Amino acid sequence: MMNGEHNDGQVSDTYLDNIIKQLEISDGSQATSCVRSVFVRNDAGTFLRKLDERVKYYDNEIEKLCNFQYQGFVKAFHELLQVRKDTTSMKNELVKNNQMMQQAGQSLAKKTESLIKEYHRQGNIQQTIDALAQAFPVFETYRKLQDCMEEKKLYPALKLLEQLETKHLALVKEHRWSELIQNNIAKFRNQIRNESHNELKNFLENVATHADKIGKSAFAQAAARLDIDRRYYTLEEDRRRDQQQQVDGSADLALINMNITELIDFSPIYKSLHINLFLNCKEEFSKHYQREKQKQAPVIMDVPPKMHESFDAFKKYLQRVTGFFIVEDHVMNTTEGLIDQRFYYELSERATQQLLAVLRRAVSTSYNPDLMLDMKIVVVLFCAAIKESGFPVTPLLDVLMELRESYQQLLLNQWSIKFKEILRKDNYIQMVIEDETQYQLLLRQFPLRIEATERLPFPRSLPYSESVPKIFLEIKEFAAVCAKFAKGLNVSKTEIDDMIRKPSNLLLTKTLKSDLVELTAAESETQLNFSQLVQICINTIHLENAMPYLEDYIVALVHGSTKQLGLRLQGASMLKDIRSLVEDRIHDKLNDKIDQCLDIASYDWMMQESMGVASDYITTTIKFLENTFRAFTHLPTQLSQTTCLLACKHISTSLIDKILSAEVKAISLGALEQMSLDLMQCEVFASKVNIANLDSETLLLCFQDLRQLFDLIMDKQWSVYFERYGDPDSPFGRVNPHTVLTVVEKLREGLKRPLLLKFNRPALEKENIKLFETVSKDLRSLIIDTS
Known about the structure:
There is one protein chain. By secondary structure, this protein is an all-alpha fold. It is elongated, with a radius of gyration of 66 Å. It folds into four domains: 44-154; 209-391, no CATH class; 410-585, CATH 1.10.357.30; 601-785, Dsl1p vesicle tethering complex, Tip20p subunit, domain D (Methane Monooxygenase Hydroxylase, Chain G, domain 1, Up-down Bundle), CATH 1.20.58. It has 30 helices and two strands. The protein has helices at 2-25, 31-40, 44-151, 154-168, 176-226, 236-245, 250-257, 260-263, 267-278, 282-301, 311-334, 341-365, 369-386, 394-425, 436-445, 451-454, 467-484, 493-520, 530-545, 547-559, 571-599, 616-630, 637-660, 669-688, 696-700, 704-715, 718-723, 737-751, 754-759, 762-786; strands spanning 432-433, 460-461. Strands 1-2 form a two-stranded antiparallel sheet. Keywords: Coiled coil, Exocytosis, Transport. It comes from Rotaria socialis.
């Protein structure tokens, strides 16, 4: 037990000793933690005891140290007292010497101060001299800069500005006046930039002034390449002046060989670009140039008043546009970065739209084919001239197609007037050729030979009238005028052929057709008679036969030789259509004349007996038809046959219509006999008609219906009629029961009239009345049965 307590005491002492050592060596920051640990262990009494022991130990050590050094301290103190006496003596000596030195140095200090001032003055003078030496070139350069700006010598001014900024001002930047010069340099820069813009403005004004001359030169060069006459690029006043001055071709040669730089001085634009490049304003200058160009372009493209009324104004306008874009192309190719391809393309696109509008308006307002042809050549020249500068000409060439259509339409209108005049003046009588010379001249104009007339002596009659060769010549001239439009166009032979053949077809199928239709129409102001219509029909035949010669002429226009194959014209089919219309008019005219002849008849439907001969009206009609059919010599056989058949059918139909007319209430047997005699006269005519490939039996069939009707009633063959009704071989197979019923009813009514009863025998009349009543009943029964 004692042993354990002893060991615990040793541990505690060791721990406290360590605590005290930590306190000795620490700066006091750990005192709190050390004291806390002591109290925690309940060793406060032991710690205080050990702390007192430690204090006593250090007190002893301090005392021993003081005792050891005390004698030395006393000795040093005595020596310090001794030194104090010497120090006092030295101080007095120093004061005395100081007073002596102060008195002696006052004059030296004055001289030294004067020397220092002189040295400072000399330094200031040298600095002034150096500063002036540095400032003098600045002032001299600045003076020269001001002189250059007053004289507007921009390029030397830029050189001086560069010298001031890079060489001189850096040496005098500490001077306040250098800031003033620096500020003025910025003003000079702005002034130089503004002057360069003014130079640009003058350049653009110069371009606007000479653009038409540049374009005129480009037109002349293009005309020389395309072999186009000079009148398409020179103005009327130029040609008049050349005639007055008797100028030869050297003026045109000079115009063709003229270079753009001879008319336009490009140095201002180059100088302005270089100036702005030096000023680091190239991009800004480029934008400014492009803005100015965009402003100038609408002015150049502006259409002068009444341009479409003057061919010279039209040429000058296109020349001005050409010159403007040639200059722009030259600027783009001779400068770097001023404008690019994109800007040029946008500018030309806007110009193209304006040009398209101008050209389309010129096309729509022009009513002269010759002027439109001249306009086409000028547009071709314009495209050829401006194409070299990269201007897009494809849309403009498309407008030429619109111009071509308008040109062709004007030609069609013009030729329509010519055709109408030719057709109006024609007498529609066969042409008579007096001699061989006149005949050969006609063949040169109208090469169609007619074998039937070749052997005839002079004076010789031709089957067609004078309008045929005239129309043929006009069609040839139309094709030649259409061919002129292809001159100068870079198109194939096929396209040229289409340019000629398509409008030629329109001329035939629409223009000539409409004029012929209008001429032959029933409501036409020119009321053509029957013979004139026949002559027109003959004319169409010979025009149709002449179509191959027109086709050969068009092939020769395109290929230079008739050996080439070409498409056929549509004139033949058109003339067939016209001929068909004229044939209808011939038939109508013939029928009208027949109706006129028949209408003069004043039939006595209640006559007691027939006259024994044909009526006057039918005799007149037959004579008219005989004279008419003699004129059918030159008509096609088919037309002659058809006309004759239709005439006979119309007579037969007209006679039946007269009998069946509702106005005729009653008919006598005498009137029926007279009608039969008239029919017999028609049958005699039909048997004598001499028309090729048309026999009399065919014509007699036209009157067969009426003949069977008359024979049935007059011969009283009723039993045969009823027994063989429906039999194709019946002698009365063409008699319609309705028709015969109507005639029988009218005959029965005629027999009941008092006038006939007065002159006829009553017994016979009663018998006929009874017969007609029986026949009427049978006919009605037959009609009911067949229905």
